[in-house]
Design a protein that fits this description.
Helices cover 20% and strands 37% of the residues. It is an alpha+beta fold. The chain has 2 domains: 76 residues, Elongation Factor Tu (Ef-tu), domain 3 (Beta Barrel); 147 residues, Threonyl-trna Synthetase, Chain A, domain 2 (Threonyl-tRNA Synthetase, Chain A, domain 2, 2-Layer Sandwich). The protein starts with 11 loop residues before the first helix and ends with a strand. The N terminus is likely disordered. The structure holds zinc ion. The site of zinc ion has 6 residues, from helix 2.
């Protein structure tokens, strides 16, 4: 799902989610700790996927990246140690263990949401990813744990098929003609000429296809198995499930 402003700059993670290390030049520093690079693989957060953490290395010096966000269209790295300045050449290293877990969770959330939507007729109203866990909010009149368990079983069956996950781009006008590309209820596509589309499964008959700015695994087998952990009633028709990822 959309991350705010994630389409303004085509960052390295947009086309290569597996880029965990890169060289870059510092193009701006504010307040000694907010660093903008000419290129970055750090995900700034959005669409339910938390920002990356990691380190920027200049020579032998390390500057931990404690937070990443998007401000005025720029991906900004907050470093825990001041000292970087404009023109510095740095190597960026993303905390790969954390990021990879979030990639697996992101792809899992799309597959689960697709099954909820297609089989249960739910509207997805929100999601939040963390390492090893996804939370999905949706509306559903009937609230039956057996129904939810069967949906998770089906999601597991899709994941174990080893479906390819691919990224492509569509002109905005073309994308807007297909309302199914915007899955999150109430979400609006960002104002850009081109939308990034993430497809899970064969292009001719995908399990899920939606405009999305997040990072995903290449193949659904990387996700592992899902386990329905908790299901909650949050209101008249508002439901929330927590799903755990094994491994
Ligand atoms: Zn997404």
């Amino acid at each position: 799902m959309f991350g705010e402003g994630c389409f303004v700059v085509r960052a390295l993670y947009m086309d290569d989610s597996y880029c965990g290390e890169f060289d870059a030049v510092v193009v701006g520093v504010a307040d000694g700790k907010y660093v903008v690079l000419d290129r970055t693989a750090f995900y700034p957060g959005g669409g339910g996927q938390p920002h990356d953490t990691g380190v920027l290395v200049r020579g032998g010096e390390e500057f931990p990246v404690v937070s990443v966000g998007k401000f005025s269209g720029e991906i900004t790295h907050e470093v825990g140690v001041p000292g970087l300045k404009e023109g510095d050449v740095v190597r960026g290293v993303v905390d790969w263990d954390r990021r990879y877990k979030l990639m697996r969770a992101h792809t899992a959330s799309h597959v689960v949401s697709a099954v909820f939507h297609d089989d249960l007729g739910c509207r997805i109203t929100g999601n939040q990813l963390s390492e090893g866990r996804i939370r999905i909010d949706f509306d559903l009149v009937e609230f039956d744990r057996g129904l939810l368990q069967r949906a998770i079983d089906k999601a597991n069956a899709f994941l174990s098929e080893g479906l390819a996950v691919s990224v492509s781009y569509l002109p905005r006008e073309e994308a807007l003609q297909d309302p199914s590309l915007v899955k999150l209820a109430g979400a609006l596509p960002p104002v850009v000429d081109e939308l990034r589309i993430v497809t899970i499964g064969p292009l001719g008959g995908p399990v899920d296809r939606q405009a999305d700015g997040g990072t995903h695994v290449r193949n659904t087998v990387e996700v592992g198995r899902l386990e329905l952990f908790k299901a909650e009633n949050k209101g008249k028709h508002n439901r929330r499930v927590y799903v755990l990822l094994s491994g």
